[in-house]
Amino acid sequence: MDRAGLDLGGGYRARPIALDTYRAACARLEGQIFGGGSLYDFDPPSKAPPPPGETFAWGISTGEDLIGWSFAHQKDERTVSMADTGILPEHQGRGLYTRLLPHLLDTFRDAGYTLVQSHHRATNNAVIIPKLRAGFFIQGLNLYEGGLNVALTLSLDRTYREAMHVRSGLRAARGDVAQRLGLSSIPLEETVPSIAVPLPEGQGEDTNLGGGYVLRPVPYEVYYDIYTGLEDAVYSSVSLDWPTPPRLEPPESPRYAWLIGHGGQVVGWQSSRQWDARTAYMVNTGLLPAHRGQGLYTRLLPPVLAALGARGYALVRSHHHATNNAVLVPKLRAGFRVQGLQVDDHGVMAVLIFSFEGLYREYMDVRSGLKRPAGEVARALGLEEP
């Protein structure tokens, strides 16, 4: 970044500042920026902090007024940690973080770093979404003095980025990635041609998804028959190949299914089922490769969520490969929150939850430490308001 600063548009600029200037700005403004969160009040430390290594500090300003900052420091010989970014509330929601982020990453790349790490409250979608869109991956959750944090990592090295996809189960190990992981390379498979499947009659009204696409409710059996015929053309993820078939029948629960049609043919699907007495589970969504990258997943979420809400569910749950940002970002933008990571027969999966009820959304923010308990949520948790 030019030492003279960077034009962020809308009258905002970012420029490198001295470490002491950053610390003074934190002391002056952090209460206004982070005061609504919950942080454990430790006794004074008995040890001096370790040296931060190489540091990077930027101030964000409008006119002569400093209204925010971003601070990063070296963590090890390959990694820089984006430790702290703050913007005054009245200047949030204007895309400043999204516009600043690429320039910060260019700075780290030019400085020779391979990995960029950051931690954020697990329900802070306003920051997590720009990070995922920039290429960060979810790599963990930790409970610390500020609440529940989601750990994100961006690899500036293409091979390591692909290795994270292999670890999550989203893709198979091939070529240099397989060699670096000490795994046998899985041969490239020829693309499975999709079978032209006529869009069958539905059981209810179609939803117009735009661009000639429709979302059609169908009986579960109709969806499942089509799914089994097209799944190899849709998925390239690596799941455990169980050596024996299941010995038990799945539990009976209400199931819901939709097909995505275009030009009279099936190009995708969505299936959901009941998870428990309050929760629906979005089990499976698939699109044929030729129909991806057009915003279909984003557009189908509102009608599917509305249908599940109309059936009385308070929560909607879904699981996705932890590095599948193409799905995680639309889900978070629709209001889902990260609530866990789990390892199952499909790989390392991020657990997301959507709540139709404002009280539960507030509860998630309280549990993550993003907000302090107040009002109805404080009463529901049996906590006195501070």
UniProtKB/TrEMBL annotation:
Record-annotated N-acetyltransferase domain positions: 12-159, 213-357
One Gene Ontology term of the molecular function aspect: acyltransferase activity, transferring groups other than amino-acyl groups
Lineage: Bacteria, Thermotogati, Deinococcota, Deinococci, Deinococcales
Name by which UniProt lists this protein: GNAT family N-acetyltransferase
Key word Cell membrane present: no
Organism the protein comes from: Deinococcus radiopugnans ATCC 19172
Keywords of this entry: Acyltransferase, Transferase
Keyword Acyltransferase: yes
SUPFAM superfamilies: Acyl-CoA N-acyltransferases (Nat)
PROSITE patterns, A to Z: GNAT
Pfam families the record matches: Acetyltransf_1
